[in-house]
Amino acid sequence: MIILGIETSCDETAAAVVKDGTTILSSVISSQIEIHHRYGGVVPELASRKHIESVVPVVDEAIKTSGRSVSQLDAVAVTRGPGLVGALLVGFSFAKAYAYALDIPWVGVNHLEAHINSVFLESDSPPFPFVALLASGGHTGIYHVSSHTSIELMGQTRDDAAGEAFDKVAKILNLGYPGGVVIDRLSQSGDATKIEFPRSFLEKSTFDFSFSGIKTAVNRYVMTHPESVKDQIADIAAGFQEAVVDVLAYKILNAASKKKCDHIALVGGVAANRRLREKVIADAARIGIRVYVPSLHLCGDNAAMIGAVGYHYLKAGKVSNLTDDVFSRNR
Ligand code: KG4
Ligand code: ZN
């Protein structure tokens, strides 16, 4: 089954052609980073407008580079939510019209399920069941995954998402938006032990997270050390990153042992973090657990993962109809 995937939930306009939920024939991502960069975060109205400009050329490019023609598409899958409503509506409305015109089925999919299914776009993918840590700019949660679409939420952030914490700390340190990649890179030349930031485990037994305290702690440190901060940026970045990674790694390993799973997946934008990958892989190896992390281009928002999960919706007979709408928050 050849599926066109479309993603417009936040600040990436993406389209991909995916075969049988596992093989990427093409994947095109048009990022809006340059537009939102100067505001230090995504401006929803600007995002929607840019999606409108980009969606047709991005889809055309995805089809052109897939080696298939429009008439060979079997279905369209598109992000239905969660995300920015105005942004979602662009891809969603486009997908409805496109599929209607081609007279093929289409399906609206959950963005978080799509991130979890991104691991199946790699040749080495986890067997069911496994536990997944999904950490991105909008979401941070731990899931028990027993099939492509049977996904149980074990815990999630009570305030900021992990990626949001990276972005806000980068803003405090004047490093620009999005902050994750910059903090990741800077940390390599910093010493994570120089400045200790708090680790918020909440109650150790829960799989919930809280990242607003650490962001405040970094802000307080910067305010109280105005003279020395500029020479300590790399150490602050490394200390902050280590604190976030410690909590994420502890909770996902705990979740694996609670569910007696020997397989862990790390997905979402923050799964691109070098230190997170390194620590979870090393800690898991010590207790015989295997870790699966998609390639960097599949961690952040992309449409290949939308095509991948769409395949499983369609195989299970789920199709959308023209009266369906987008949703902003997970239900
Ligand atoms: O999955 P994603 O592209 O979009 C959402 O669904 O939110 O994730 C974007 C988030 C941003 O907050 C970004 O700063 C973070 O992922 N991120 C990283 C890294 N690369 C991207 N965070 C830490 N380390 C990275 N290397
Ligand atoms: Zn995402």
- Mass-distribution shape: globular
Structural class: alpha/beta
Low-pLDDT segments:
none
Intertermini distance: 29 Å
**Rg result:** 20 Å
What ligand molecules are bound, each kind once? 5'-O-[(R)-(carboxyoxy)(hydroxy)phosphoryl]adenosine, zinc ion
Main pleated-sheet profile: 5 strands, mixed
Mean of the pLDDT scores? 96
Q: Per DSSP, what share of the residues sits in E-state strands of 2 or more residues?
A: 15-25%
| Main sheet strand line-up | 3-2-1-4-5
Order of helical and strand elements: EEEHHEHEHEEEHHHHEHEHH
Q: Tally the helices: what do you get?
A: 11
Helix content: 40-55%
Total beta strand runs: 10
Summary, kept brief:
The chain has 331 residues and is α/β, with parallel strands linked by helices. It has helices at residues 33-37, 44-66, 85-102, 111-117, 162-172, 179-187, 212-224, 229-258, 274-286, 296-299, 304-315; strands at residues 2-7, 12-19, 23-31, 75-81, 106-110, 130-135, 140-145, 151-156, 263-267, 290-292.
